[in-house]
Each structure stands twice: as structure tokens, then as C-alpha cells.
Amino acid sequence: MPRITPLFHLSLLALAVSPAFAGDALELPEVTVTAKGYQASKLETAGASVVLEPTQRLPGDNVGALMRGQPGLAVQSDGAWGQNPVLRGQRLESIVLQVDGNRLNSAQPQGAIASLADLGLLERVEVIKGPSSVLHGSGALGGVVNMLTPEPTFDHAGELNGRVGLGLSSVDEGLQGAALLETGNQRHGLVLGGAAKRVHDYEGADGEVDNTGYESRSMLFKYAYSLGDYGRLHLNLQQHKDQDVWFPGSTKPAPAAVLGNLTIHSPNTERTLYAAGYEGEVGSGTLSVDLYQQEVYREIRAYSSGLDRNQVWNDVTFTTRGVRSTYRLPLGEAHLLSVGVDQWRMTGDPARYQFAGPSQNIQRNDPFSDGQIDSAGVFIQDDMQFGRLNVQAGARWDRVKGDADSKGSGASRTTKGLSNSDSNLSWSLGAIYNLQPLLNPYLSLGRAYRAPDMRERFEDATRGDGYFHQGNPQLKPEQATSLELGLKGDDGRSSYQLAAYYSRIDDYIAGRVTGQTNAQGLPIKRTENLDKVIIQGTEGQFAHPVGVVTLDGSFTWLEGDNRQDDEPLYRMPPPELTLGIGQPRALGFSWHSQVRAVKNQDRVATRFSNGTENDTAGFVTVDASLGWGFSAIAGMQNLDLGLTLRNLLDKGYHEHLTEGISGWEIQSPGRNVALTLRGEF
User: Fold this and answer.
1) Model confidence band, residue 18 (pLDDT cutoffs 50, 70, 90)
2) 408 phi/psi in degrees, rounded to 5
């Protein structure tokens, strides 16, 4: 049920007292559905968030590429395809990743499950930073990344609307195309979409970077049926396929010299989503119920350069089936109570084979068999307004159980002691005070948790990082307690956001390099709980018009400390700063240029990593873009033509979170000139 809030009145006041800009188009403050579980303005939310719009995508871009240069965000990369989001120093395992609100699980050592969606079919990507377990359960220590596709609506009156896009890029000879169609009437709503891309090995500043090309294609079908006063039913079907994906950051010398180097690659990776649900008014509130099944199928190979063959091959499907239901009940005009249940089950049963050294003898050595994780939770959230003060409080109880038929293979195979379950209480308390559109201080305090994933529990196997990983079924869940202070504002022309945070994570889960070797001579990395780690930082961003141009910028500073080993936390992003200037996109000419400066990272872990994490040099890159917007032309309501230049100075560098042996890290793409065409009809 919509509510008239003090923020709404403040927005009207801002319009009324700004005659100098009466002719300008003012934008309403950003809204998200992920932060509170329903559509809410960022100025009513006590926390930091960012909405990323993939309108300026290039052929080689994926969701990870949108994160680069954003405050508090970073990317862990092992190739052009494999780019995982990092939120405030916390990597994939400590982030809940969703597609249209449906949890996406995959216990994989290489690659990025955030890449299992095509930007051409996304409407936006919502990133919620900070602990979010009350609504999103296990894993939401660092936050949530929700990849959202367009929703079917009932306001098309039978007309066909949509958008098309095409992109070309020089650095990887990339080509991409996407199309979305939307139609409907008072009873039916339909969205159809398709996208495809092909990129070749890209050029770094020092030459071609091998094994960075790939192909992908996506399909989208969404349907909604109106029940009138009784609500709506909806159906969501998606499939995304990636082919011939390599992870050059995984390249390591093989244990036997005759094998040369081993590199992980995936001939085929697929994500399939089946989701259906209902939303409507029940009694005085709104009930939503969603059922979903999301599968990630991967073919994983380890290629031997010495023998020119796949030395290891592994096929596995990770399936997550879930149900969630929320009932939102308004208690008066400024009080909204939400209660809900959330249950999901993840299963995986990898089939792994390998040649015995250089011989033709094939051995089966599954890292585990019939792994299963069950999670069930109940939550309550209370959103209250006291004049200009918005207070949000919530709590959640979860029980997570993991089990498997066996762990390891051969003589080390075990079937005992694999079952483990934990109960966790998460909570949050936040408040934001709406003094005026450009002055909204907030405070947030919360506790979140992360149960160990399937690989951390059960896997005893060699991974692409060159280590033999030992899982631990009896790991404790991570518990994070976080405090955040912030200030943000948005009056439709200028906007900014500042945040400072402190997080203490108890029983932090990580793989320690032990300095020991297994029977095959491989170094062992053992999964364990660290007593306590601290992550603290500050971040901010702004955009402000000055005449006909807009200035923008952002900064990130964070540090992590491993208190058990009394050293910096392993693989933390370095501080960085961006500054930009441009003319906003509108009908007619637009442009933007940006400088990104990243500091060297010399705070590295030596004890925990056994000397395998090294300093990374800082770097500066320059990007620029030009655009021209046309009104109705060639049957389009509007048409945008864009020219983008990335890494304009052809700087040779790599990010600190790039995978690879020190000195072997893959170089980032060099100078790239790209053309994009985007039209709406």
C-alpha cells in the first residue's frame, strides 16, 4: 500500500523553491526493491546502496565490469569472463547474488556466477552494501547483488514496445546484440528477450592476452496475469549459456614437468531459472509467494599444455530450489510490518575424472558426492516513521544444515562426520533523518552470518589455484557485527553519499596455505575458521551540475586485519579515487570523461598466505565517451549512438584482486574503442 511520507513533501518543496531550474528535468531519488523487500527510496533507507544501469555496456562487459570504479565495490578476476563482485572487501562467498530476487548458488572455484546474465537483458543491478541477512539469509555479510530484468505490466493497451541494442569493440573484436519486447493489456503482461555476444582474445598494453575470448547467449520469458482486485500471477523463465570460457588466471605449473602448465576452462556453462509466484492484497496487507528453481551446470576442464589435452574433466550441476513468502501489513499511515519465511535447498554431485600423470589411465576422484545444504528461516521487519525520522528494525532466525554421502576419494574418502547444522539469529536496526533532500544522516547497526558453502565443507581436491584444498564439514558459520554511519542527499539535480563502517567478523572462513604437501606433492590449503577479522573503511560519491556540465566522483578506502595472525587480511582491495566531468545524456549531444586512480596495495598477508600474496603497483586510467540522442527516427521513439574509449592512454596494469601467480597475473585490456547503438520503440 503506497504511503505519503515526509520525503515526498520535501521533494515537492524542492521543486517549489527552485525557480531557477524550473525548465530543467529533475530526477526523483533512486529507489530499490532489494534493501527493504519492497520499493523504497534510498533516502528512506538507512544504509549504502548503488543502482547500476547497463545502458553503456560494451561487448566484453558483464555484471562485474559495472562494479569497477564504484565506491566500496571491486572485482575479483581470473579472466575476461570470470569477474566476481567484491563488496567492501568481502568476496563471492560473503555476498548473496540474485536474479530477479531469486537466489543464485554455485560452489565453483573458477569463474563468476555474476557473469551468468547478459547485460543486454537487464534493466538494472541493485547493490546493497553491508549486512543484509534479515531479509536475505546466509551469506549476506558483505551485501546483496540483485540483477533485475524488466517486469511485465498491464499498461501497453495491446501495443508492442521494446528496445534493441548493438555493440562493437576494438580491443577484443567483440560483437553483441540484444532485443527486448514488451506487450500486454489490462489482463496480460509479456516480456520476451534475447541476447548474444562473441568476443575474441583481447589486447593488453603489451600484446594479446591468450584465452580471454568466449561466446554467450541468453533468453528471457516473463508473463504476468492480472486477477483484478485479487492480485497477479507471474512466471519467469530464463536461460543463459556461455561457451569456450577460459580462466587464464588459473594457469599454474603442473606437479609433473611433462604436463607443462595447467589451465582451467569451461567448454559449456549454463544457468536456467524457473520461477512462479503470486502477489496481491490479502486482508489489510499484501501477500507475496514465490517458488523457484535455479540451476548452474558447468563443464570444468584442466588443460595440460605439455600433453595438449584435458588432464582433468568434471561435470556438475548445482541446483537450488526455494520458496519464500512475505506478508506486508500497514499499521496506520507510517508503520509497515513485514513477516516472512524463506526456505531453500542446494544440491550438487560432481563427477570428476583425470588421467594418472602422463599415462592414459583414467581415474575417478570426485571431491565429494551428493552434497546438500538446507536452509530455513523466518523473519520480521518493522519500518516506522516518526515525522522526518525513519526507523527500521528486523530480526531473523535461520537453521542451516549441510551433509554429503562422502568426502574426498581413494584412500582418503570418508563417509563419517559430514553432517553439521547451525542455528543463527540475525538482526538489524537503522535510522535515517530526512532534514531536507540534500541532508539525510543515518545510522545502521546489524548482525549477519554466513554458513559455509558446499566446497568449504566437503571438497578434498585440487583446484585451479594449484593447491590441494581440504574441506572441513564442521566449520562454524561466520558471524559479522557491523556499525555504519552515513550521510546522503538527492534533490533531483545534485546527489551524494558518504559512509563509514566497521565490521567485526568472528569465525571468518578462509583457506590457509599450510606449507605442507599431499601424497602427489601438491601444496595443501586447509579451510578453517579464523578467530576474528576486522574490516573498516570509508567511501563516497557525488554528482553536481555546474552550468551545462556535471562533475562527479567517488572514493574508496578500506582495510582488513586478521587478528589471529596479527597481519593484514588476505587480498583486500586498495584505496582508489575517480573524478569525472561531462554533459548528461539527454536528447542531443552528450559526453563524459573520467580519471580513475588506484593506489598500490602493500598491505598483504604473508603468514596466512605463506608468502603467496605480493604487493601490486598502483595505476591511473582515463576513459571517455561521446553520445548523440535522436528523437523519433526509423520507427524508433528514440535512438542513442555512443562512442566509448576505455583505457585511453593504453596503460598496462592489473588489479590487486586479479588471480594468478605473482608475475603471471593477466594484464587488463588495453585501449578500447567501442561503438554502441540503442533504440526504443
Assistant:
1) very low
2) 80, -175
C-alpha cell at 618: 598502483
Distances (CA, A) of 298 to 272, 295, 312, 344, 519: 12, 10, 14, 21, 28
Q: Centre a 10 Å sphere on the Cβ of residue 106 and count the other Cβ atoms it contains.
A: 27
List the 124-129 sheet strands across, edge first. 48-52, 124-129, 143-148, 95-99, 102-103
Separation between Cα atoms, residue 604 and residue 596, nearest integer Å: 22
C-alpha cell at 624: 571517455
Residues 591-618 have pLDDT tens digits of: 999 999 999 999 999 888 878 889 999 9
Taking the C-alpha atoms of residue 444 and residue 129, their distance in angstroms, rounded to an integer, is 11
pLDDT tens digit string along 379-388? 999 999 999 9
Rounded CA separation 208/248 (Å): 12
Residue 343 to residue 403: CA distance in whole angstroms: 17
Q: What is the pLDDT of residue 109?
A: 58
At 465 the pLDDT is 61
Question: Is 426 in contact with 141 (CB distance < 8 Å)?
Answer: no
Per the DSSP assignment, residues forming a β-bridge with 496 are 489, 542
- Find how far residue 637's CA is from the centre of its chain: 32
Do residues 569 and 561 make contact, with C-beta atoms less than 8 angstroms apart?
A: yes
Burial of 550 (0-12, 13-18, 19+ CB in 10 A): middle
pLDDT digit string, tens, across residues 540-549: 999 999 999 9
- pLDDT for res 111: 62
Confidence class for position 6, pLDDT limits 50, 70, 90: very low
- Cα–Cα distances in Å, from 19 out to 15, 16, 376, 578, 647? 8, 7, 54, 32, 41
Q: What is the pLDDT of residue 108?
A: 62
Contact 365, 355 (CB under 8 A): no
Q: In sequence order, what are the residues at sequence separation of 6 or more whose Cβ sits closer than 8 angstroms to the Cβ of residue 519?
A: none
The whole-number pLDDT of residue 466 equals 66
Contact call for residues 401 and 343 (beta carbons, < 8 A): no
Strands 523-546 and 495-517: antiparallel
Give yes or no for residue 460 having a pLDDT over 70.
yes
Identify which of 344, 289, 342, 337 has the alpha carbon closest to the alpha carbon of residue 318: 344
pLDDT higher than threshold 90 for residue 24: no
Is the overall model pTM greater than 0.70, yes or no? Answer: yes
pLDDT band at 56, cuts 50/70/90?
Answer: low
Relative to beta strand 468-470, strand 420-433 is: unpaired
Rounded to the nearest angstrom, the gap between the alpha carbon of residue 504 and the centroid of all alpha carbons in its chain is 22
Per-residue pLDDT, 110: 60
Contacts of 515 (CB under 8 A, 6+ apart): 523, 610
Report residue 30's pLDDT band, with 50, 70 and 90 as the boundaries: confident
- Residue listed under C-alpha cell 552434497: 371
> Which three cell numbers mark 558?
578500506
CB neighbours of 493 closer than 8 A, spacing ≥ 6? 21, 24, 26, 27, 544, 545
What is the three-state SS of 137-177?
A: CCCCCCEEEEEECCCCCCCCCCCCEEEEEEEEECCCCEEEE
Judge whether 369 and 404 are in contact, CB under 8 Å: yes
- Give me the chain's average pLDDT, please: 90
Q: What is the CA radius of gyration of the chain?
A: 25
**Backbone angles phi and psi of 241, in degrees to 5:** -130, 135
